[in-house]
């Protein structure tokens, strides 16, 4: 192209482009500003004109068309085409009316906002192809924005997740907002959990794209999991606590009523003379004993719980052994020397086992087991 012509066209305020074989040879700054698109993203490609543009070789012509902005929205323009050489056209763009001038300015402001938001933003341009991502999204994925454009964004997810996410995006293209969480493995930060929301957008030509947000919620999910664990578990031993026990008993009662569980029993264990251990060796020694008993019950294969203080509970499902056999088994599981400092303590426990029966309540089940344990303790005292 003639350099003097290019310099002249470059300073004009009207958006201009030179096109050959329907591919862009050159654009001026006014057109890149109008589309909010970098020059290098236009050169060598088709202009983002909805439905394409028919070029008239015989005469200068003006056509109303829709230009796709970088945000995915369509701008109504009048395109005037002039054949300037055997195969080259000059295209001049004018906004259709003042309202569209305001719209273009509005879109530029929106993109400036999106570029600086602390959450990831993505916009599809056609189908699943992304035409815009902001720097925050690229940072979440540990890459640069251009690496996520087109269909590349799906490649950052694990192969087994891509089909699901593709289906989710296709659902958004049917006009239904969607939201999900997904995991990625970023090069620098490792495994991350993302909250992904896609909202459909219908353009003036009735084509549907989507705009989406992506937030890294790894710490939030971890904190929620930690809080959930703390609500249902004992801080000292790590065992499930009384609250969790009552819920699990209720669950078993439902299964027994529905005949989806053959049988279930509850074992109640009370450490003998635990107060003496605390009083003579101190509470740290007592804590050491509680932790070791919890570990032994956890290794028994039964669901284990710390009920309160020195009391523990296990739930036993579909076990053919008798109540007496299970009481003996649990006693042996707990009984063994525990090293506390330089001392070895022989720990004994009183154990009672009771059947869980349909029609009981969780409180009644616990009372039955507590009573069985108390009876066993009294028998040993005789």
Automatic annotation (TrEMBL):
<dbReference type="InterPro" id="IPR035965">
    <property type="entry name" value="PAS-like_dom_sf"/>
</dbReference>
<dbReference type="Pfam" id="PF00990">
    <property type="entry name" value="GGDEF"/>
</dbReference>
<dbReference type="InterPro" id="IPR052155">
    <property type="entry name" value="Biofilm_reg_signaling"/>
</dbReference>
<feature type="domain" description="PAS">
    <location>
        <begin position="106"/>
        <end position="176"/>
    </location>
</feature>
<keyword id="KW-0548">Nucleotidyltransferase</keyword>
<dbReference type="InterPro" id="IPR029787">
    <property type="entry name" value="Nucleotide_cyclase"/>
</dbReference>
<keyword id="KW-0808">Transferase</keyword>
<dbReference type="Pfam" id="PF08448">
    <property type="entry name" value="PAS_4"/>
</dbReference>
<dbReference type="InterPro" id="IPR000160">
    <property type="entry name" value="GGDEF_dom"/>
</dbReference>
<dbReference type="GO" id="GO:0052621">
    <property type="term" value="F:diguanylate cyclase activity"/>
</dbReference>
<dbReference type="InterPro" id="IPR043128">
    <property type="entry name" value="Rev_trsase/Diguanyl_cyclase"/>
</dbReference>
<feature type="domain" description="GGDEF">
    <location>
        <begin position="262"/>
        <end position="382"/>
    </location>
</feature>
<protein>
    <submittedName>
        <fullName>Putative diguanylate cyclase YfiN</fullName>
        <ecNumber>2.7.7.65</ecNumber>
    </submittedName>
</protein>
<dbReference type="InterPro" id="IPR000014">
    <property type="entry name" value="PAS"/>
</dbReference>
<dbReference type="InterPro" id="IPR013656">
    <property type="entry name" value="PAS_4"/>
</dbReference>
